[in-house]
Amino acid sequence: MNLNLLKETFVSFIRARGMDRHFRRLGMDMFRSAPVTKEVPPTLAEQLSEASRSQAQALLQRLRSRPDGLTEAEADAIREHSGPNEVEHEKPLTWYVHLWHCYKNPFNLLLTLLAAVSFYTEDMKAAIVIGTMVVVSTLLRFVQEARSNTAADKLKAMVSNTATVMRHDQVEEIAAEAQRYFDVLLHPKGARRVEVPIHQLVPGDIVLLSAGDMIPADLRLLAAKDLFVSQAAMTGESLPVEKFVTPSNLNTSSPLELDNLCFMGTNVVSGSATGVVLTTGKRTYFGALAERVTATDRTPTAFQAGVNKVSWLLIRFMLVMTPVVFFINGFTKGDWVEAFLFGLSVAVGLTPEMLPMIVTSTLAKGAVALSRKKVIVKRLDAIQNFGAMDVLCTDKTGTLTQDKIFLERHTDIHGAPDDEVLQYAYLNSYYQTGLKNLLDVAVLEHAELQREMSIASAYRKVDEIPFDFQRRRMSVVVSEREDHHELICKGAVEEIVSVCSRARVNGEVVPLTPALLDEIRATTGSLNAEGLRVVGVAAKDLPPTKEVYSLADESDLVLIGYIAFLDPPKESTAPALAALRAHGVKVKILTGDNELVTAKICREVGLEVKGMLLGSYVEKMSDAELSEAVETVTVFAKLSPAHKERIVRVLHDRGHVVGFMGDGINDAPALRAADIGISVDTAVDIAKEAADLILLEKSLMVLEEGVLEGRKTFANMLKYIKMTASSNFGNVFSVLIASAFLPFLPMLPLHLLVQNLLYDVSQISIPFDNVDKEFLEKPQRWDAGDIGRFMVFFGPISSIFDITTFALMWFVFGASSPEHQTLFQSGWFIEGLLSQTLIVHMIRTRRIPFFQSRASWPLMGMTLVIMAIGIAIPMTPLAHYFKLEALPLSYFPWLVAILVAYAVLIQGMKGWYAKRYGWQ
């Protein structure tokens, strides 16, 4: 061994163990630091280019790594310096910035302006009340959002992507560890594969990649086999690019064009590889991009757009009504300052200050409720889409079926049992290192082969040609004796037959004639009709002249036979499909599997197959033709990933809210295209990354429960918006009428603000309200037009009883002059607040409130508390501070009569409205 290399290696080892300071004390100069010189640090592109050109051994030494990876202690030490492998996400806001964001909505700014004007005009009571509204609204939203974010973070932490790394085994004794350290350089061995969370990766880690993996950091490839990587997230290229250990273009100025580098944010489409981590976190190429884009605004989701439409509807209404109220009061009363303050109060009364807080808390409560049903919400807004979903597209395997595949048969090409076919299949599954699916697991776990584990030990692996979703097959090359190589290929029957020119019949190899092909199709068709998934097995002998094989070698094969798998349907599938159907969700099957197998499974679980389309037909159809077909077809079989994505997009373009459930790399494009992507915690990394929801249990029954929870969440948000919009509209309509005829203000700005504050506080418990069963029976969507119609229809109804209260106070209690305006205002204050609070229970349900549909206890309790406070303010010594006065007891029988009449009329109008427009 070279002495200089030995010295450098020993120094690296001692430094890695933190022992260099002891040797310095002994006067050993090998650890003395070189003179410090100031150098301009290289750019990221220069660092990556340098790593691309470096020899593998030199690069590993520079990273203080080795071919079989780092030890746990070394990785921990590097992580302390390099930090976690996390890109620059939208950083959590500091508490004071979060508080500012909770405050700075248009509604609070308007209230602040009103408080400032009140303070300037020395109306301290109004200023205090308005200030209280701002503080309560801001703090409620701040506290609720903080709790929601904490809950969401905890839920998301339950689902983490991992990477497979090599870990060098640690030995306690330093001498033994040192010897092992030196030995590895010459004879790499003793490494173990470990799954670690991606955020724990450090520079120098040796990472193993296979199809479906996300690239967890910026890597330099050390070994690669038919590695194709999708770089669309980085470059926009739609087609995957092949990566090699040796770069073909070292002169390029763009690291993205270097063939031996892989970048965080991309994913493996097919093949396998080993790479060493160069940079992590924000120091990666992707991290550098993320730093520049995290501050940019995101495009609003459909849910956010719906909330924004409703908000702007109310704001436009406010911009129209406020000036009208201002001018009417200014002209009729002559006090323009008071009219201005009153107009601003009306504007505040029309604004749903609690809307952001109600939306956030409702979504957070929905996320927590879904977590109890084994659904992890990655994006809160997805809950509403879950409830609005009317079409669910899903794969067959693992959703309709048990996701536990059993090797049922192994036959020759005529369908007769054949052990040789099983041996070939076992060797193929045993030696492949790429995408190991459930079929491989079933082969390896087959009982007969467990007794014959020596079968694989008799062979040496030469090479493999990994699986990809275009070929739908994979091959391994093995050698039993060094005089020849055997290429063993297995995959979809039609793909295997397409590369076969011969077949083994009764121990003899014969040409594949048209008659034999017809017999093969008939045999595999009969197996499919029994619900078995059939995989073809083929092989050929090759001379031992090369060690590297490619796709071109998959030709002129000999068809050996088939292995057939059974994936039984789940017991819960049939009732789950019936429940989804009852709740207005159509289920469509999008699978790459055989159409006969899929049709049989659908029949067994009670899913009516109204139509079936194969991927080959989808490929030929225009978008217009496919748009018509997707409405009626139930099963789409033999699909490629691109076909799945296209079908989901077409359904979306037809106005459906589309959910897609998948767990494989082939499902990732469709998951991104869907309104709501649904995956499972056992899915490949790229599928989990693309999904909005993660199921901890791969079951349609879990989905059905999630749909119901999504609809409950949406229902409670819609309640608040409808209640607030209609109630506030009715109040302003009453104010307009009163302002035109009364010689004084019908209510002071202070009264309007206090009333609005109390009403808003009463709505805090809406997220916890019950939801009627009929509301859960069909998908629900945002409809700003429906909310506007609802507001205009039900708002003026409350004005009928407001005007009745005006007449009561004017004619019965004699509050008909400015001297008695306080009595008038007190009467309307109580009636207005109680009718507003009552409308919550009237509009929250289509049924008869309190009898057929009861609100939740939190909402009932809050209603009673606010009503009690509203009555207590004028009837106690507090009245003086709010410029109100006590009402005679004879007022309250009249109040009860007005409220009962109001409830009866609203109930009657609900029936008429529901028949004409429906009740959402």
TrEMBL record:
Transmembrane segments: 732-754, 790-813, 825-843, 855-879, 891-913
Family under the similarity heading: Belongs to the cation transport ATPase (P-type) (TC 3.A.3) family. Type IIIB subfamily.
Keyword Transferase: no
Subcellular localization, as worded in the UniProt entry: Cell inner membrane
Its biological purpose: Mediates magnesium influx to the cytosol.
GO CC field: plasma membrane
Pfam families: Cation_ATPase, Cation_ATPase_C, Cation_ATPase_N, E1-E2_ATPase
Official protein name in the record: Magnesium-transporting ATPase, P-type 1
Residue ranges of every copy of the Cation-transporting P-type ATPase N-terminal domain listed in the record: 50-123
EC number: 7.2.2.14
NCBIfam families per record: ATPase-IIIB_Mg, ATPase_P-type, PRK15122.1
Reactions catalysed according to its record: Mg(2+)(out) + ATP + H2O = Mg(2+)(in) + ADP + phosphate + H(+)
The entry's keywords: ATP-binding, Cell inner membrane, Cell membrane, Magnesium, Membrane, Nucleotide-binding, Phosphoprotein, Translocase, Transmembrane, Transmembrane helix
Main location: membrane
GO MF entries: ATP binding; ATP hydrolysis activity; P-type magnesium transporter activity
Membrane topology (UniProt): Multi-pass membrane protein
